[in-house]
Specification:
20% strand, 9-stranded mixed beta sheet, binds zinc ion, 15 helices, alpha/beta, 4-stranded parallel beta sheet, globular
Length: 456
């Protein structure tokens, strides 16, 4: 089996196709030219110069959208256990992030992107960190994933190491410079969003500037919001309103905004979401592990808001698997609202079509349709636990959480074949990440409950 040559046209035949548009899966063929899906259907007319790849017993789906990750935390798995959010951040994650340099960031990003591809995520949205984000962009470009990147903006905050806190003007200038260097790079696979971390780590003055810059440059704003009651209480004490209330006051909320978590919302907050038509990212695994709560995804969906699913960072999940998130999302909504309120087909769409809509990429990705980018993933039918008399999305959501794709394509180029990364050695990536993790730990003062980076 050889890697797809970039521009040479090819076809996948004898494969079952789940387009993600709502139509049932069917047996057929799919053609790719110049990285784009150019034909698909039960049968395609003969095309003698097109390479044919027979894939009997396989299902092809649109690649998953991983709506929220922290690539810089891929080397922090298991290092911040058994803490609620505010202690998780202050005692472990912020000191660890402060200890990163470009080499450790690169190793962490390589591990995170490798795991994303091996689990079928062809697009990811990353929050970035405060320094060294070019390293993340270089790795994303080189490994061929589609990504929305950003520089985490932090100019205030209790318990934030000085190394992660920058004057507002410096942070915003660096974020816009990152945008100028990388937005549209890697043949259009990379985009750059503004990534203010949350209301407690960004001053009102900087939020206003972020909103202005986003409108001027048509940028996505990617931020965490109302993840815990602690965050809401601290925001009310500091700014006199809930996180969504103050973000609306500062001009941040609109369709360019991607809000992550949104677990603790009152009726006024829910009205703000409806009014502003924002995009949302649900992170069920992270919210469960940190004990944050169960977001009301059923209401967002009923309101017609675009919703993506995210794993969040490896330090609060700890898997980076879209199929693990779809199963948990379905189960938690059944626990909160009763079974069937959010059907399996709706949950499957959050990882594909609706996820693409939430991040503003629905014209390019999220379904298998003529004219869309050829971001494709293939599973063995047997691995999905699927029976022919069931809708495929039922198997995807409830039975397939242990499955991994056997092939993954981004822009029609193979990034995973036979379940292994193409052109990358996963064992070497893991060894490099383990060494980076040891270097990070070696830089920290770990004598107390709260780890410290020496400049803190
Ligand atoms: Zn996050």
């Amino acid at each position: 089996m050889k890697e797809a040559a970039g521009a040479a046209p090819w076809r996948m035949e004898g494969v079952r196709i789940w387009t993600g548009t709502g139509e049932p899966a069917y047996q057929g063929a799919l053609e790719v030219r110049d990285g784009v899906v150019t034909a698909l259907g039960p049968t395609l007319p003969p095309a003698p110069k097109v390479e044919v790849r027979e894939r009997p017993g396989a299902v092809v789906l649109p690649g998953f959208v991983q709506g929220h990750v922290h690539l810089c935390q891929s080397v922090m798995r298991g290092l911040a256990e058994d803490r609620p959010l505010h202690r998780w951040l202050r005692e472990r994650i912020w000191p660890l992030e402060a200890a990163h340099d470009e080499a450790t960031l690169r190793a962490s990003a390589r591990l995170g992107i490798a795991e994303a591809l091996l689990h079928g995520a062809t697009t990811l949205v990353d929050m970035g960190t405060v320094h060294g984000n070019d390293a993340l962009a270089e790795v994303a470009a080189q490994m061929g994933i589609r990504a929305i990147l950003g520089k985490a903006l932090m100019d205030v905050g209790d318990g934030v190491p000085p190394a992660l806190c920058q004057p507002a003007a410096v942070g915003l200038a660096e974020a816009l410079a990152l945008h100028a260097r990388w937005h549209g790079a890697a043949e259009g696979r990379l985009r750059v969003a503004l990534a203010p971390r949350f209301t407690l780590s960004v001053s009102p003055e900087l939020w206003v500037e972020i909103a202005r810059a986003a409108r001027a440059e048509d940028l996505l704003i990617h931020t965490h919001v109302s993840e815990t009651p602690w965050e809401n209480d601290a925001c009310r004490a500091m700014h006199g309103g809930s996180p969504l209330e103050v973000l609306e006051r500062w001009g941040v909320l609109d369709a360019r905004t991607l809000l992550v978590h949104a677990v603790w919302l009152d009726a006024d907050d829910r009205a703000r979401l409806r009014r502003r038509r924002v995009g949302l990212v649900h992170c069920p695994g992270s919210n469960a592990k940190l004990g944050s709560g169960i977001a009301d995804v059923a209401t967002w969906v009923a309101d017609g808001l675009p919703v993506a699913l995210g794993s969040d960072g490896a330090a609060c999940n700890d898997a980076l698997s879209p199929l693990a998130e779809v199963r948990l999302a379905a189960q938690l909504q059944a626990l909160r609202h009763g079974p069937g309120r959010v059907p399996a087909a709706t949950i499957a769409a959050l990882a594909t079509r609706e996820g693409a809509r939430a991040i503003g990429a629905e014209a390019e990705i999220g379904t298998l349709e003529v004219g869309k980018r050829a971001d494709l993933i293939l599973f063995r039918e047997a691995d999905l636990g699927w029976e022919e008399d069931l809708p495929l999305e039922h198997a995807l959501v409830f039975a397939a959480s242990g499955a991994r794709p056997i092939e993954v394509y981004v822009d029609g180029r193979a990034r995973v074949l036979e379940g292994r990364l193409v052109g990358e050695d996963f064992d070497e990536i893991r060894r490099d990440a383990a060494a980076a993790r040891r270097r990070l730990l070696g830089r920290l003062d770990r004598g107390n409950e709260t780890w410290r980076y020496p400049s803190s």
